[in-house]
Amino acid sequence: MSATGPALTRRDTTAVERGPDPVRITLSVNGTEHSLDVEPRVSLLDALREHLDLTGAKKGCDQGTCGACTVWVDGRRVLACLTLALTCEGHEVTTIEGLAPEAEPHPLQRAFVEHDAFQCGYCTPGQIMSAVALIEEGHAGDDAEIKEWMSGNICRCAAYPNIRAAIRAVRDQT
Questions:
Q1: Which of 29, 81, 132, 146 has its Cα between 20 and 30 A from that of 73?
Q2: 0.90 cut: is pTM over it?
Q3: Domains in the chain, start-ordered, CATH in brackets?
Q4: Highest taxon of the source (predicted)?
């Protein structure tokens, strides 16, 4: 140990070099395995939209500030525009299309309709993916908490009161 703290030891960081040519990756999306040839710099959002035709997640800002591209990786909310597709190999990706795989909509999707929680609808998939996770995480205690935990999802139409009402309705059903 040095005077400034513990000695840092170098871990084996052997990495597989990839790129710039396309590489074959396998993504598990909504319970289905997909083999894709993508450049290493392709975002998860672009892989979903352009290679798998899953267009629910939207490209809003492409900078990670709006939340329109929110999906889950292993059940955790991520911004698909900031996540490299190849880093998702070996993980389960869930999109809005896989939220309710049966013919019936998810309860939060129904609540969004019942509470008029969308106007233009562009942000809605990201809002719903974030809201379902927020309820499951236990962060839907009151409006202030919902507002804080949903702050990464922007609605340009300002339907926030209706979005919170939909979240409260589903929270209170569970």
A1: 146
A2: no
A3: 23-98 (3.10.20.30), 107-173 (1.10.150.120)
A4: Bacteria
